[in-house]
Structure formats: C-alpha cells, structure tokens
Amino acid sequence: SCSARWHRALSLNVLLQTLFQAYAKFSGAPLKVSVVDNTWRGSRGDVPILTTEDNIVSQPAKILNFLRKQKYNADYELSAKQGADTLAYIALLEEKLLPAVLHTFWVESDNYFTVTKPWFASRIPFPLSLILPGRMSKGALNRIILTRGEPPLYHLREVEAQIYRDAKECLNLLSNRLGTSQFFFGDSPSTLDAYVFGFLAPLYKVRFPKVQLQEHLKQLSNLCRFCDDILNSYFRLSVGDG
Amino acid sequence: MGYRTPPGALSPRAALPQAGARSGRDAGPRAPPTEPGARRRKCSPAAVRRAGSSWPAGGHLARLAAAPAPWCAAPGGPRRPELGLGAAGEHAEGRAERAPRACAQPPCLWWRKPSSRRSQAFLQMCNLPIKVVCRANAEYMSPSGKVPFIHVGNQVVSELGPIVQFVKAKGHSLSDGLDEVQKAEMKAYMELVNNMLLTAELYLQWCDEATVGEITHARYGSPYPWPLNHILAYQKQWEVKRKMKAIGWGNKTLDQVLEDVDQCCQALSQRLGTQPYFFNKQPTELDALVFGHLYTILTTQLTNDELSEKVKNYSNLLAFCRRIEQHYFEDRGKGSSSIRSS
C-alpha cells in the first residue's frame, strides 16, 4: 500500500486539499494528512505536494495521475465519453467558478481580513505569517485581473461583477447537470465529484461576512444535498478545513 | 487599473476609422487621414453573399471584419492579419488605405486567426448572410479590441460569445433544441476548448522560442516602422508570458503543452464518436468553435508540425473538419486552402 504525507496546503489549495482528500476517500487510497512544517520550502507556491517513499509530485493533475497509476482510481466505471465530460467540466470549473471563489476568499476585503488571513496566519510560522497571506492575496488578484480583466471591462468593479455572474451561471449549470442523481456519473463518486466537492464545500461551509456566492449556492438545493451527502458519508468526524 | 491602451497608429499611412464605425472605446492617438490620392492596395476579401435573406431587419448585410483569408496575396510581403477598416457606410471593398510596405523577408505563412474562422462558421451555420472584409485596423474599431467583429446596421459586436448572444436576441440560435443538461455539457466543452486549445495556441505563438523568432515577431511588428516593431512585439510577448505564469503555464515545456493538446483532442474525439456533429445531427456553437481552432491548427504551417500531427491522430476530428469545410465553405463558392493539401 502506498502511504503518503501531505504538506499542508496554502491559498487556493484549500480547495485542492479538500479535493484530494475527497478523491482519496473515493478511491480508497490510504493517505495521511499531516502538517509538516516545511512552509519555507512550500512558500514558493508549489503546494500541494504529494510525497511518497520514492518521489515528490506537485501540481494537481499530476497528483491525480500518480494516484491513478498506483491503482487508486475513482474512474474505473466511467466510459470514454464520461471521461471526456470530466475534463470538460473541470475546465468549466476552473474558468468560470475559480475566479469568483478566489475573489471571495482572498480579494474581498471583509472576508480576507476577518476569516482567511487570521486562519492561515495561525497555521504558518512567524514571520511568514506576516508575509505570505498578503502575497497570496496579491497573487489571487493578479490572476483575476490578468485572465478576466480585459477590455471592455476597465474597472475592477466591472470585472468583479462579471466573474460573479459567470460563477452563478456555472453553479446553475452544475445544478442542471446533477439533477436528482446522487453523483455526477451514476451511483458512485468519481474524479469530477471530487473536483466539484473540492470547490463547493469550502464555499458552502465557511462563514463569510460577504456571502453573495454562498447565498446563490444555498438556493441550489441539489448541490447542497450533494455536499452534505459527501460530508456525512466520507468526512464523518469534522468539516475539516472548510 | 492600469490597462494598457493599444498602441496608437503612429504611421500616417495607417487607415483611420471615421466617426460612426466605433462604439465605445477611444483607442488613443490617431493618425491624420490619408489624402484621397494615397496609394490604395486592394485587398481581396473573402466575400460571401447569399441572396434572399431577411436578417437583419432593414435588409443590411452584416459585415464581418476579420483576418484576411490566407489567399489574400499581399504584394508587400507578410502583413499583420488584423487589418483596418474604412468608414462605416462606405462600400467595404477596396478601402484598405494602407500602403504596402516593402519587406525583405521571404513570404512567411502567418498564423491565421482562429477566432474569425469560428465566428464565420457559426454565422454560416445559422444560415445568415455575411460579407467578410479585411481591414488594417480592425482591432481598433472593435469595441473590445479584438477581432473579429460584426457590423450590423448601427451595431458593432465583437468576439464569438457576444456575437452568439446578439444573434440569439435576433431570434437565431443553434442550441434551441438542446435540453438543460446538454446545454451545460456544451458550455463545459466550449470552456475546455478555450482553456486548452486557445492557451496552447497562444503559448506556441509567444512562448516557444523557435516560433517567436521566426514567425511571430516579424508578423506582429510588420505594420510598424523600426524600432516600434521590435518594442511592440517584445511588449506583447512579455504580456503573454505574464498571463501564462498567472495561470500556471509559465513553467510548462513544449512537450507538456503538446500533451495537453493531445488530451483535449482525445476528449473531443471521444465525445464526437461517430456522430456527424457534437450534438447529433445539428451543428451548434461548439461545432463552430472546435472547427475554428482545429482548422487553424491543421492549415497553419509553423516551425514544427507537432501540433497538427497531434490533431491528425484523431481521424474523426479530421473528418469533422473536412465535412464542415465542405458543407459551409466550399459549397458556397469560395476557394480555400483545403485541409487535404496541408
């Protein structure tokens, strides 16, 4: 069996950490999450990192591939077309939902200063706790501006309005796709379920002051039911980092 | 917010859009208008006319300002694909008022913009009459700074997404027959194509040193005099690299990018299967989008052919492109460099 250690994730990797934990649970990989105080090394932004006895793998797609090669595959039951659909929906999540989630966590000042920053700062050593959150916040804003801030959107407000509109539309599309089934492809969870859960669970559970995206999510009852089901079945002890 | 305005047309030979052709944006300093006796180069646009249209209301033909078709013989050598436009309301043909520049470089095959091809495909799939014209400063006339855009009556709409919505508002849509789940799937696949193929094309154009040195720099800087051509090309390259870094593609090697393209093509191929179009018998926006990208990849020659080889591995995708090209482009009486010959 493969035993691995996780380096505690930072920034957008709250989502990825939830994602990987979910994937690990779905596929049965024996993973142990441990806080390793290598924040200095991880601060280059390479987290999350999967470490096994032999190698170190970074980047989400590679980590998933690695797990699959080790025969922890949550997608055995999927057809080729469903595999293709998985890729497409993951692209949709990254393009449409991720900017708004990044904004909610890292750019919206009420949320950032009251929730995100204190939470991260409490988990990384001084003096990094003074530097890293600010850097992550700037990185998130940078990413949003560079990928979405193009003409005819000239003000940050317009960009923000657009990304939230896109995120709400994305949530609607996910809800339409899920319908009344328990998981996205049949009765057992797959990579796509892990991805969607990884994005939605923090959004669903973290208590933010500014909650417009959360409010929208709560109106989509099947997505909420989806998150609750997975939380109850696979993460029974606690909500974790959400 | 620090958005850069596009470089103004500093050369007096650049064409100047007249009032009425723009909606919205001011693009910065403009060149004085050319005199009536200035040399004019006739650009042979790929014009597509269809008789008997009732769209749009008022009977005006929509004009699609796009990159020039590859068969546009440029007497001055390599040209920047985004060309300019004369005044709105003037007859479109023969108004490229930019004098040809003598260029010592061998005629190189530039990167045809996939965006115009897919918008064109989409409009033709909707059976809407369009006329494609190419102009020197189409980018500056577009409200969002991007080509292609359509000019319909008094309105100017740019980029595929808004064009699709505009056409939908006029009552034409390709995806009406789809249910909610299928619409979600269609949007997801469109994002996949944008995410993978578009970014890979951008990477290949601007981050692969061989292509940049041989083709892109020369093409991008060709309308401008020295040293502006170098400065603007380097600036654009820096911008693209910055964006790549922000989305996590900064450290990717060419092989990794090609692998991503392969994965994307595999997904598209699996989704398409043996059907004629992605959603069974009728084409949708997704078909237009995929066609635009794949056609560009297959018909543009670069320093290496690996990108098109990746696509050619999937025979159903090749057949798909060929089918759309035949049905919507060749049958309408237009000559084109076909996929077969590339």
Automatic annotation (TrEMBL), chain A:
Any single biological process term in GO: protein transport
Leader peptide range in chain numbering: 1-24
InterPro entries named in the record: Glutathione-S-Trfase_C_sf (IPR036282), Glutathione_S-Trfase (IPR040079), Metaxin_GST (IPR033468), Mito_Protein_Transport_Metaxin (IPR050931), Sam37/metaxin_N (IPR019564)
Locations listed in the record: Mitochondrion outer membrane
Listed GO CC annotations: SAM complex
Metaxin glutathione S-transferase domain span: 167-230
Protein's name in the database: Metaxin 3
From TrEMBL, chain B:
CDD domains: GST_C_Metaxin2 (cd03211)
GO cellular component: SAM complex
Pfam families xref list: GST_C_6, Tom37
Domain Mitochondrial outer membrane transport complex Sam37/metaxin N-terminal as annotated: residue spans: 119-237
InterPro entries: Glutathione-S-Trfase_C_sf, Glutathione_S-Trfase, Metaxin_GST, Mito_Protein_Transport_Metaxin, Sam37/metaxin_N
Region (Disordered): 1-55
Keywords: Acetylation, Membrane, Mitochondrion, Mitochondrion outer membrane, Protein transport, Transport
Location relative to the cell: Mitochondrion outer membrane
A GO biological process held by the record: protein transport
Residue stretches making up the Metaxin glutathione S-transferase domain: 262-324
Superkingdom, taxonomy of origin: Eukaryota
Main function: Involved in transport of proteins into the mitochondrion.
Subunit and partners: Interacts with MTX1/metaxin-1. Associates with the mitochondrial contact site and cristae organizing system (MICOS) complex, composed of at least MICOS10/MIC10, CHCHD3/MIC19, CHCHD6/MIC25, APOOL/MIC27, IMMT/MIC60, APOO/MIC23/MIC26 and QIL1/MIC13. This complex was also known under the names MINOS or MitOS complex. The MICOS complex associates with mitochondrial outer membrane proteins SAMM50, MTX1 and MTX2 (together described as components of the mitochondrial outer membrane sorting assembly machinery (SAM) complex) and DNAJC11, mitochondrial inner membrane protein TMEM11 and with HSPA9.
Family: Belongs to the metaxin family.
Name of the protein: Metaxin-2
Gene: MTX2
